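Same chain as my last thread, 417 residues:
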Amino acid sequence: MTADPLVSAVPAAFRRHMARSSGYVLGGQVLRISSTFTVLVILAHQLTRPAYASIVLFFLLVTIGSTVIRCGLPKACVRAIASALATDGREGADRVARTGAVTVGLLALVSLPITDVVVHYLARDVLGDPVLTRLSWLVAGAISVEGYQLTIAEVFRGFHRVGTAVMLGYAARSALLVLAVIVLSGASASSAASVLWVYLGCDAVPALVGSVMLVRFTSGSHSAKGRQSGDVARNPLAVGVALAVVEITTFFLTQGDSLVVGAVASHTDTALYNTASRFANLLAIPYFATSLVLPPVVAGLWASGQHGRLERTVRAGAFIGAVPVVVVYAVVAAFGAPIMGAVFGHGYRGAAAYFVILGIGPVLNAATGAAVTVLTMVGEQRLVAVLTVVITCLTLGAEIALGEEFGGVGVAVASAL
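reply #2:
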């Protein structure tokens, strides 16, 4: 019998766990999106346009850099911890958690000088941003700290502590950042450098708190015995690199259409397209929540050989994630123009046509289930990495080709398919 109580849970308990955990993730995403919007609005009024542009580029660099610096190890940790819970018990899982956190921490620390060099080059020679060029070391520090912070959060997700993972992930940082920026604004001390320092501090606080919590959480296991089976234990970096490739290519797969439409369409069509795209992204939140809850469950069931229950669990997760997506899409597709006009203004009613096309992608993803999550949690990360790279290249090529011929509508069709 498996040592993981959640894996052994009856279906009703699993549904409650899915609902509760999805609520945590949904709340965290709402907090992250609303806090980012609030911060940008405040800074837009406080900073000069060049300084504001530097902050926007800083956010982008930290997002991409922290993804690269983690080398996919957080997801590898989730899978290894859940598998250890199902096969070795709590002692094996605790050992994997500590090893994963220390490994990413060392990677972030050792790669700090290299990250500084890369950021300095990008800021000076590619982006032409003097502020980020001068403060490249601070940007590199934020990348390293955020990479470690998000890893600690993922470790707790491996133990099915989704609420703790959400809090230590983006939720705590987002809340702290809003409060700090409001204080800076009230003190009339806002500058690009001060915002960078504040951001670094807001990442460091949950990272330190999470480290202390992890030490206390895993301190009950002191045994050096036990086994760690599977490809994650044998070669965690290879597994992590494959998962990192999936994360990075997925980022360009989901964001590349905005760059393409900006190059092939008019400014008006670009504004309408990006408005519809951001609105369509909201459809993915239930699917995103499900994909964050399922990984440790899938890994545990697979490791314990409960393949039949794994299939039923994935189907249940797909149903839970798909229902709200389909309902919201149907409502917005039917009344898109009035909704877009009421939310964004009368001039954006035309974004409804783009939404009808772009919304097909999230609906299909939700309806087919978290296939990528399942494959990566059962050891097929290399296959997923290859497929993701191929699909990304084909999608970007189709977006460029159809965009040059049909404008924004062509890009939307290629992106949705």
